[in-house]
Write a structure and sequence with these properties.
Elements lengths: L1 E10 L2 E2 L7 H5 L2 E8 L16 H14 L5 E3 L7 E3 L13
Antiparallel strand pairs: 1-2, 1-3, 4-5
């Protein structure tokens, strides 16, 4: 399994910094992906970040790195309360693996 992260958008060999103004232009956009290993393990019973498969943890940390914002809540199932809450005081600077 693999997961793709859309990192950039190109049109006519130029990277875009804004959303195209028309649907016609949007059709010509090529997404630049970073591909990461995925996971097949069931994560619905995970209640802590450390309980997630390592590939899932790495994915979350990479997305966090790309967007530059700490990810506090991680959905692990279909219900509203199926989330891992990393806590109010969690910060990128506190992440040992980061």
């Amino acid at each position: 399994k693999e997961i793709k992260i859309g990192k950039a958008y190109k049109r006519n060999e130029e990277y875009l910094t804004t959303m195209p103004a028309s649907l016609k232009e949007l059709e010509e956009v090529e997404v630049q992906y970073e591909i990461m290993p995925g996971w097949t393990e069931d994560i619905t019973n995970c209640t802590k970040f450390d309980e997630l498969p390592l590939t899932c943890q790495n994915y979350i940390l990479r997305v966090q790195e790309l967007i530059g914002v700490p990810i506090r809540w991680i959905g692990v199932g279909p219900n509203r309360l199926d989330v891992i809450d990393r806590g109010e005081n969690w910060d990128l600077a506190n992440e040992e693996d980061y």
